[in-house]
Amino acid sequence: MAKIIVVTSGKGGVGKTTSSAAIGTGLALRGFKTAIIDFDVGLRNLDLIMGCERRVVYDFVNVINKEATLNQALIKDKRTPNLFILPASQTRDKDALSQEGVQAVLNELSRDFDYIVCDSPAGIEKGAQMALYYADIAVVVTNPEVSSVRDSDRILGILQSKTRRVEAGEEPVQEHLLLTRYNPARVQAGEMLSVQDVEDILAIPLIGVIPESEAVLKASNQGMPVILDQETEAGQAYSDAVARLLGDAVEHRFLDVQKKGFFKRLLGGK
Amino acid sequence: MTQLSFQLKGSVVTAIVLELYRYSGAQFADELAAKVRQAPMFFQQTPVVISLEKLETDLLTIDFPEAIALCRDFGLRPMAFRGGPDAAKAILEAAGLVQIPVGQGRAAMPEPAPPEPVAAVEPEVVVRTVIEEKLVHRPSKIITRPIRSGQQVYAQGSDLIVMAAVSEGAEILADGHIHVYGALRGRALAGVRGDVQARIFCQSLEAELVSVAGNFKLSDSLRELTWKAPAQVYLQDDTLHVGAL
């Protein structure tokens, strides 16, 4: 039986797709058979971030409507073994998703896969609700910024009331906070919310802090999940987050302002 | 056996007892009105038994239909009379309510007549009605998880106790008091059905809005008073006060 992870946030543009790609890849690198599903029907971008946009033949909606089988639609990642992507439809919209259809696809995937990562769209409407309904674990991606925190809070309220687990009276969804685009220098200057501020308001366990990094944009444009770029802080931070997701206790890095030594400043390193 | 449409069972019914000492229409109405002001939540079609055991005046001078009508007007539902001389039975039953004897306070129902030989034998049924005096206690609503933005919690007919923070964008309402053992960042409305004695207590006042029985204050005015500190909000002389806890 697969574990279903939903990567959600409420607010748009905080790093859900980047994080879904990174976490999915991280799990696959550790040997778990992983599928990442793009739930953003009509505005698909998981395929771009994963670098498989030229190999999309069938998509999630085709499978739900039984126009294609799951095997025909799943795209095997070329770089990482054990990793598969189920892209969203670009021509249709969220109404094409149905509860029974989504459940059927997840059930079929559950038979062979260890982890299913659901990349949720922004908002709290049907698309986002479908993505989080069947989740066992939720990664709530938040920027250290007031509107993102408030929207994440809203999404947490929905996770606590509108999921299959809650309705069936089972154990609630395991919630984790992933703080992205963190800039310790700005936190120190008092311009940005600190980890402690966000934890105070959201009150859920912290699974990772991803520092603001130019590597993320570069990785998106190259179609390569940032976790594969282990020379960058963002990549390393995602690796740590995946380790924590699997139960390892890893200390948080990149929380403090890095003091650049003389040579580093001279040579312009980061 | 054919399916029964009903069954008679022994049961215990709890109700409030209204002990009558003396009666005059105007005084009865005034005292009822005063009690309603004290505890409005109590007078919500509450069943009562009117006890005549401590009656000091002559029973015959009492206008029972009027008394019952006044009770109904103020939100009480008289179910029966208790006590009083047996001789008064006719008068009481003319008023529309049954008279239950004191002492045992029990009435044994006569056993049903033997059924026709064709049907199975019905079991013996004894109905005992026991009326006890019991304080009506509506337990407070307790929430132990944080109340998230967009959620709304209403404690109807009781107090509300929240053992975690109330997020910005959340709304909590109660007919009684509100206690927040955490930060209050959303909106809190106490005494929503008009209880002016209701109060709001919190460990850290960071609310968007607080209100007692409709009188409210927004966060702008709250920031000048006790902000981000333990506070209580209460109504005094029709003005909302915010004080340190």
Descriptive terms for the model:
heterodimer, A: 270 residues, alpha/beta, 8-stranded mixed sheet, 40% helix, B: 245 residues, 6-stranded mixed sheet, 17 strands, elongated
Structural summary, described in words:
- The complex is a heterodimer of chains A (270) and B (245).
- Chain A is of the alpha/beta class.
- Helices cover 40% and strands 16% of the residues of chain A.
- Chain A is globular, with a radius of gyration of 18 Å.
- The model of chain A has no long low-confidence stretch (mean pLDDT 93).
- Chain B has 245 residues and is an alpha/beta fold.
- Chain B contains four helices and 17 strands.
- In chain B, strands 7-9-11-13-16-17 form a six-stranded mixed sheet, with no helix packed on it. A five-stranded mixed sheet of chain B has the order 8-10-12-14-15.
- In chain B, helix 1 packs parallel to helix 2.
- Chain B starts with 10 loop residues before the first strand and ends with a strand.
- About 2% of the residues of chain B have low confidence.
Which overall shape of chain B is indicated by the principal axes computed on the Cα atoms? elongated
Shape of chain A: globular
**Low confidence ranges of chain B:** 104-108
Determine the fraction of residues in helical runs of chain A and give it as a percent range. Answer: 40-55%
Strand order of the largest sheet of chain B: 7-9-11-13-16-17
Spatial separation of the terminal alpha carbons of chain A: 42 Å
Instruction: For the record, give the distance between the C-alpha atoms at the N and C termini of chain B, rounded to a whole number.
Output: 68 Å
Largest pleated sheet of chain A = 8 strands, mixed
The most extensive interface, with participating residues per chain, is: A-B, 11 and 14 residues
Strands of chain A, total number: 8
Oligomer: heterodimer
What's the rounded overall pLDDT mean of chain A? 93
